[in-house]
Write a structure and sequence with these properties.
The structure holds two protein chains of two kinds.
Chain A lengths: L1 E12 L2 E12 L3 E5 L6 H8 L7 E6 L2 E2 L5 H5 L2 E4 L11 H6 L3 H4 L7 H13 L15 H14 L4 E5 L7 H18 L2 E5 L3 H7 L2 E6 L2 E7 H6 L1 H7 L2 E7 L2 E7 L2
Parallel strand pairs in A: 3-8, 3-9, 6-7, 7-8
Antiparallel strand pairs in A: 1-2, 1-4, 4-5, 9-10, 11-12
Helix pairs in contact in A: 5-6, 6-7
Chain B lengths: L6 H24 L7 H10 L10 H35 L12 H15 L10 H19 L8 H24 L3 H12 L7 H20 L1 H7 L3 H6 L4 H23 L5 H13 L3 H25 L8 H19 L6
Helix pairs in contact in B: 1-3, 1-13, 3-8, 3-11, 3-12, 3-13, 4-5, 4-6, 4-7, 4-11, 5-6, 5-11, 8-11, 8-13, 9-13, 12-13, 12-14, 13-14
Chain lengths: 257, 345
């Protein structure tokens, strides 16, 4: 079954076309990463899947429900978002921040139910956030903060999670930590991941499928290993990319001309 | 960075604020040029609910129930409304400088009141239709801001603030022009109105503003959770399931309507709407679920204390209430600020 169905999607900003006639079907319980050079339309595409951008043409369906016909709260129960630069409000505790993910369930006028609180505690535990759950969010390190933002998205209990460059600004260990956490969610909970990543090596290692986007169009779409090894990749990035096999994993290396 | 406040701290602040509010109410009833004993006044209040007997003379009873009580109650309503509206504006615009007059309420009400006073020509008293014109002026100003600032529902917070600045500038210049064309007597009365006062308070003015203040305060306090969610920004709030623009419309409408009602009754009392939410934020943390209800009680307490000082320090003449709120509020704010750094989200 498809968790995300994108049909002939076109997204515009004023007169500029940012995404043009994109059609993608993303299977439930899989990880699809959108790659491409800057300005390819990656962020626009994932933000549209998250319901934040107006669709000029075409349609998106999440778990069979047309995005444009969904109320905000209904949409937030189907798809969650980890933005590239999340806003972290100072003075809020980590627990309260993660609890924001339950707003779509209890609404703005009621307090979280016992069930909501239980789900938040489970997420805090799963992401090893319990030890600092009563701390102010601004006191966290970059890696801890990104785990917390992921926790908020997981607390939404959606089947689809959209991540826009989730490892930006993190050191290598924390990059791997976040991606491993996500992989566990995909494998153990059947979560569907739609992400953008600049790091082609990590994109290739974690995703089941890669979609190469350029100038708003899908250029390549296939299994991660196929896309990473395609000569099209070098052409679209406008540089010489080599793929090196390290212990069975593909490592994408830029080479100076 | 300070640790988010505990429940215990919250309970202590809430208890002290309510206790302070009760003391402020008693001061508002007891303190005045005519000396009436505190326990006699309290006894008289209880006698009205069937407990004990009043020992006040007819004149003393009139002073308490026709002069001080409505003034104290109007002070409670004004302080509560301006403070909660200020806190709500700071939350919805995520701007620490936001106050209830941000979208043109003050300029609109000022123009309306000036129109009424100047239009009445030479006279000693402020015309009776001043509150009505001030209210209409305030509502027209906010409506213009809302319509200009990105055509209502599609606007974002920054555009609305800029539209508010433009509308305020235009209306203030019109008000200045009207004042320039009027007599010095009218200018003096406009100036007195602009500084705000509870001197003309009576039960009629209380009953006029009470429904607006009650409803709008309730909506503002109920918006606390929404403002907490919206502290993560517009896009993220939407991804969490919030209809950001609709929520913004409701809370701005409630804050503006309540503020317009208060301004029409008491004039422009400055400083309360911006400083009380900040003081409360320093005491209870950054969650609007805590800031807004505590601001209601704290603002009410603050304004009744300020008014008691305004009418007694230079009795029988009165100090402008806006001057007193600034003179008391600024040092208190600086003191708390020096102890803790405020955070606005």
């Amino acid at each position: 079954m498809n968790a995300v169905e994108i049909r002939d999607l076109t997204v515009k900003a004023g007169s500029a076309t940012l995404v043009s006639d994109v059609t993608l079907n993303i299977e439930s319980g899989t990880w699809c990463t959108i790659v491409g050079p800057n300005g390819a339309g990656k962020t626009t595409l994932v933000e549209t899947v998250a319901g934040l951008r107006r669709i000029a043409k075409g349609s998106i369906a999440i778990s069979g429900h047309s995005l444009s016909s969904l109320h905000e709260r209904e949409r937030a129960r189907l798809v969650s978002l980890v933005p590239q630069h999340p806003e972290v409000p100072s003075g809020m505790t980590v627990r309260d921040y993660v609890s924001l993910g339950r707003v779509a369930y209890h609404g703005l006028l009621r307090a979280p139910s016992a069930g909501d609180r239980r789900i938040v505690e489970t997420v805090l535990e799963r992401l090893s956030l319990l030890e600092f759950c009563d701390r102010d969010v601004v006191t966290l390190s970059g890696g801890e903060r990104q785990r917390m933002v992921l926790g908020r998205a997981l607390a939404q209990s959606t089947m689809v999670i959209v991540l826009d460059e989730p490892i930006t600004g993190l050191d290598l260990r924390h990059q791997m930590e976040i991606l491993e956490l996500l992989k566990t969610e995909v494998q153990e909970c059947g979560l569907t991941v739609v992400a953008t990543l600049h790091d082609l090596t990590l994109a290739g290692q974690f995703a089941d499928r890669l979609v190469l986007l350029d100038k708003g169009n899908v250029v390549l779409d296939g299994a991660a290993r196929e896309v990473v090894r395609s000569p099209e990749l070098s052409e679209r990035y406008g540089m010489n990319l080599r793929v090196v096999d390290v212990d069975g994993s593909d490592v994408v290396v830029p080479v100076r001309h | 960075m300070a640790k988010p406040p505990t429940r215990r701290r919250m309970a202590i602040v809430a208890t002290l604020t309510v206790a302070g509010l009760v003391v402020a109410m008693v001061c508002g009833m007891v303190v005045g040029p005519t000396s009436i004993g505190t326990w006699r006044v309290i006894g008289d209040v209880f006698s009205h609910v069937g407990i004990g007997h009043s020992t006040l003379s007819g004149l003393q009873s009139t002073i308490i129930w026709q002069l001080r009580a409505p003034r104290m109650v109007l002070g409670l309503l004004a302080g509560a409304m301006l403070s909660v509206a200020g806190g709500t504006y700071q939350g919805v615009f995520r701007n620490p400088l936001a106050d209830p007059y941000l979208l043109g309420v003050a300029a609109g009400a000022g123009l309306g009141a000036t129109f009424a006073i100047v239009g009445a020509g030479t006279g000693v008293a402020t015309p009776t239709w001043t509150p009505l014109l001030a209210f209409l002026g305030a509502m027209v100003a906010v409506s213009c801001t809302w319509l200009i600032g990105g055509r209502g529902m599609r606007s974002n917070a920054s555009t609305l603030i800029l539209a508010g600045v433009a509308v305020s500038a235009l209306l203030t210049s019109m008000q200045t022009f009207l004042q320039q064309q009027s007599s010095s007597n009218s200018i003096a009365r406009v100036y007195i109105w602009l500084l705000g006062s509870l001197a003309s308070a009576n039960w009629h003015s209380v009953t006029m503003v009470l429904p607006y203040v009650a409803l709008c305060t309730l909506i503002c306090v109920a918006s606390g959770r929404a403002l907490d969610v919206m502290s993560v920004g517009e896009d993220e709030s939407r991804s969490l399931g919030i209809r950001v623009r609709q929520v913004r419309f409701v809370v701005i409408a409630a804050s503006s309507l309540g503020t317009a009602a208060i301004v029409s009754a008491v004039g422009l009392i400055g400083f309360v709407g911006i400083i009380v939410p900040h003081i409360v934020r320093l005491l209870v943390g950054t969650s609007y679920r805590r800031i807004l209800p505590i601001s209601v009680a704290f603002g009410a307490m603050f304004l009744v204390f300020a008014d008691t000082i305004a009418r007694t320090v230079m009795a029988p003449s009165e100090l402008p209430l806006g001057v007193v709120t600034a003179v008391i509020g600024a040092p208190v704010f600086v003191l708390i600020l020096s102890l803790r750094r405020p955070v606005v989200r």
